[in-house]
Amino acid sequence: MTTAETGQFLTITLDRSKCCGYTLCAAEAPELYSIDDQGFALVAGPVPVELEEQARRGAEACPAGALLVTRPSD
Ligand code: SF4
C-alpha cells in the first residue's frame, strides 16, 4: 500500500523559538517553506508525496534545527 493510499502524509513542525530567520528552508524548498513578514518561517500543511524529498531537504538546511519532518505513523 502506498503512502497516498494510507493517508499518512509527512508533517512539518516548526519550533518558532528556535527559528532565527536564516531563510535557508525557503531557499531550499520554496513550495513548502516561506518567510513571514517578521522574517520567520511558515510551513505548509501535510506534504504531498511528490514533495517529500523537498520537505526533508528544507528541514536539513535549517542551521537552527527548528524544523522536524515526521510521518504520523512513525
Ligand atoms: S532555515 Fe530554520 S531558522 Fe531559517 S527560517 Fe527556516 S526554520 Fe527558521
Write the layout of secondary structure elements.
Layout: H1 3-6, E1 11-14, H2 24-28, E2 33-35, E3 41-43, H3 52-61, E4 67-70
This protein binds iron/sulfur cluster.
Iron/sulfur cluster is lined by residues 14, 19-25, 41, 61-62, 64, 66-67.
Characteristics:
two-stranded antiparallel ribbon, 74 residues, two-stranded antiparallel sheet, 26% helix, 4 strands, Alpha-Beta Plaits
* Rounded radius of gyration (Å): 12 Å
Number of DSSP helices? 3
Structural class: alpha+beta
The low-confidence parts are none
Describe it for me?
- The chain contains three helices and four strands.
- The protein is α+β, with helices and mostly antiparallel strands and 74 residues long.
- It has one domain: Alpha-Beta Plaits (2-Layer Sandwich).
- A two-stranded antiparallel sheet has the order 1-4.
- The longest helix is centred in the last third of the chain and has 10 residues, at 52-61.
- Bound molecules: iron/sulfur cluster.
